[in-house]
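pinning this so it doesn't scroll away 📌
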Amino acid sequence: MLKITPIDGEREPYRSPDLIWNGKAGTVAVNPLTHPDAPGDLRAEQGLATQVLICLMTDRRVEVSELRDGDENRGWIGDSFDLETGETPLGSRLWLLRRSAIFDGIEVTVEDYVREALQPIIDQGAAVSLDVAVTANRPMNRVDYTVTLYGRDGGRIYDSKFEILWRQIDGVANPLAG
């Protein structure tokens, strides 16, 4: 399970490095050599955005009954037997849709999968609520969804649009910025 650790008093906890997502794969972000404090070190300035990417872009293991003929289960094998009480499997089930057509009602399925994947962020208190808006663009043969997370004061703390399914995303130089 993903754990988001708040800063504890005077010491700063380990901060996981930022991920850069190019639409097909994630890689860790590195500070430029001109960075004033940590030149060339792993960048760790966008923890919440990185946690969202991990939750959404990691394939979650599913029940065998959810697989189509010929599909192999994906995700971390440990999620099938090594979950502690209160933990949920890591990742999303969005990968199950990759071989599907854009069917009627796909918006509801995508929203359910996204909410399920991001629930650990809510459960851990890193955000208090989320909105998911899904649009199927049948002529363009794609589905877009927007994720918005809200903090304790009701303010927006994360907002990003994702394009998934049936089309490769062109590389994005800095998807976590903004």
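📌 and the second one:
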Amino acid sequence: MGDGNRAEEQIRDWYERYSSEIFRYIFVAIGDRQQARDLMQETFIKAFKSIDSYRGDASPRTWLHRIARNETIDYQRKKRPLTYVLENFAPIKSNRPTPQEIIELGEEMGQLYENLTELKKEYREVIILRKVKEFSTRETASILGWKESKVKTVLHRGIEELRKRMGKEESEYGTFKQSN
């Protein structure tokens, strides 16, 4: 079996194991189901084309998430340069889930997702990678191209901001509930 066949087989295996996870990661980042599917496919195409550069320093899962992150960033830059710039300084409301998606996620997960989309992009990314996808600090640093100390600091700040938002929602809900 030639190297091309081995590479194709390896990518097929990784696709079966990680495609759903990669799709969900991209979907949370961009909020568009069809585009997330397209970018997930592009991630695996790019992985296939560059499999020779995979040295095994990181797990295949980490390597694929890094490619997915880069594909997502490239997509956002190309699609709407102004929106990409604004997204780095303020959240874009168009990333909110549709009512149907909230129902699919369940109420608590829907609220968490809603609050995540309102966080700064770097907070959102590190929380998703560390707490939702359960990557280690080292793996997260590799995916994001950061130092481990930055991952820890941004994660701490992001979780604090998420807690504030979640607490604010709960107190607003409690006040509303009591007045009825």
